[in-house]
Design goal:
Distance between the termini: 10 Å
Order of helices and strands: EEHHHEEH
Number of helices: 4
Structural class: alpha+beta
Number of strands: 4
Shape: elongated
Strand order of the largest sheet: 1-2
Helix content: 40-55%
Length: 118
C-alpha cells in the first residue's frame, strides 16, 4: 500500500484543562442533529451511550448556553436536539479548522520534502 504525506489538523478548544470542543464533539453534534437522539448518534459513531452523554455534558457545561437539549423518555421515547447555539458553534469550529489548515498549507508543502517515502 502506498501512502503519501498529508496534513491532518485537529483543532481542540480548551477551557482550563478540559477539552470544551474538538473534532469528536463536532462529529457527535452533527450525528445528534441528524438522528435526533444521543443513543442513535453514539451507535452511528461506534461510541458507548455513556461516553456520548459525557461529551454532551462536557460541552453543555463549558459554553454559555447548552449545545444540546434533551427530552426524557416516555411511551414515545425521548430525544435530543442540537440547539441553534450548538449549530452555530459547529459552524464556527469548522470555519476555524478551514482557516487554520489553509494558513499552514504552504509551510506543509515545504515540510513534506523532509518526509521519508516508503
Amino acid at each position: 500500500m502506498t501512502q503519501s504525506a498529508h496534513l491532518s489538523l485537529k483543532l481542540r478548544i480548551y477551557n482550563d484543562d478540559e477539552i470544551a470542543f474538538g473534532p469528536g464533539k463536532a462529529e457527535l453534534l452533527q450525528a445528534i442533529h441528524a438522528t435526533g437522539s444521543i443513543s442513535k448518534a453514539a451507535k452511528q459513531m461506534n461510541m458507548s451511550y455513556r461516553r456520548a452523554w459525557q461529551l454532551v455534558d462536557t460541552m453543555n457545561r463549558n459554553f454559555i448556553s447548552p449545545l444540546v437539549s434533551t427530552q426524557t423518555g416516555g411511551s414515545h421515547g425521548g430525544g435530543a436536539q442540537v440547539t441553534a447555539f450548538g449549530l452555530e458553534i459547529v459552524e464556527k469550529y469548522q470555519k476555524m479548522q478551514a482557516i487554520a489548515k489553509q494558513s499552514i498549507e504552504g509551510e506543509m508543502v515545504a515540510f513534506f520534502q523532509f518526509i521519508q517515502k516508503y
